[in-house]
């Protein structure tokens, strides 16, 4: 009888040991599975974030490409504006004196764009465009005074506001100033607009 009781106790102990081993195995397996799943999720999240980073970089490059002509125009305009108030000097290209074509020539040259030095020769470069399509950085050409048979004056468009085109240029009477194309004198003298950029 003692032997049978002892045998029953041993059987119960062994069965308990097996069940605890099974539960340990199951918990270990389930934790390993959850670790694998979380690793897979993390790697897929990483893949998504890497893809997003690459796409974001590509978008930035595209934006730079789209902006480059505009920012180049902005740079040229900003360079020209620093000469505002400079006195007129025929053939001048510095702050001590500047003529109209000198102002445009130096402003474009600062952006590594070489134009002819004389306004009538500048008018042969780039593409002729209608006034309604002009942008900042485009050039306006004029026939002024008694020399209306050929282009002899150039200005650089700095802004377009309310159907009025503002341009910077150097005049013999007032030096480097910003004028409006809507002013009667400039509108009458206007010949053509051209795009260099």
Automatic annotation (TrEMBL):
GO MF annotations, alphabetized: cysteine-type peptidase activity
Spans annotated as Disordered: 19-48
Domain spans labelled NlpC/P60: 70-197
This protein's record includes keyword Transferase: no
Keyword annotations: Hydrolase, Protease, Thiol protease
Biased composition (Low complexity): 26-36
BP GO annotations: proteolysis
InterPro entries per record: NLP_P60_dom, Papain-like_cys_pep_sf, Peptidase_C40
Transmembrane parts of this sequence: none
This protein's record includes keyword tRNA-binding: no
Family the entry assigns: Belongs to the peptidase C40 family.
Protein name in the entry: NlpC/P60 family protein
Organism name: Pseudotamlana haliotis
Species lineage: Bacteria, Pseudomonadati, Bacteroidota, Flavobacteriia, Flavobacteriales
């Amino acid at each position: 009888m003692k032997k049978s009781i002892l045998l029953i106790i041993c059987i119960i102990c062994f069965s308990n040991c097996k069940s605890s081993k099974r539960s340990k195995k199951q918990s270990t397996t389930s934790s390993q599975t959850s670790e694998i799943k979380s690793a897979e999720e993390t790697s897929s999240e990483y893949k998504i974030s890497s893809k997003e980073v690459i796409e974001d970089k590509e978008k930035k490059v595209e934006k730079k490409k789209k902006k480059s002509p505009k920012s180049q125009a902005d740079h040229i305009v900003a360079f020209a504006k620093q000469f505002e108030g400079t006195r007129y000097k025929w053939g001048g290209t510095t702050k001590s004196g500047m003529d109209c074509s000198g102002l445009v020539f130096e402003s474009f040259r600062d952006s590594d764009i070489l134009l002819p030095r004389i306004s009538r020769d500048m008018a042969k470069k780039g593409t002729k465009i209608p006034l309604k399509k002009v942008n900042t950085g485009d050039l306006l050409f004029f026939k002024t005074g008694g020399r209306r048979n050929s282009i002899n004056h150039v200005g650089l468009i700095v802004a377009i506001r309310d159907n009025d085109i503002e341009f910077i240029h150097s005049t013999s009477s007032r030096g480097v100033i910003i004028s409006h194309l809507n002013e009667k004198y400039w509108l009458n003298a206007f010949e053509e607009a051209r795009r260099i950029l």
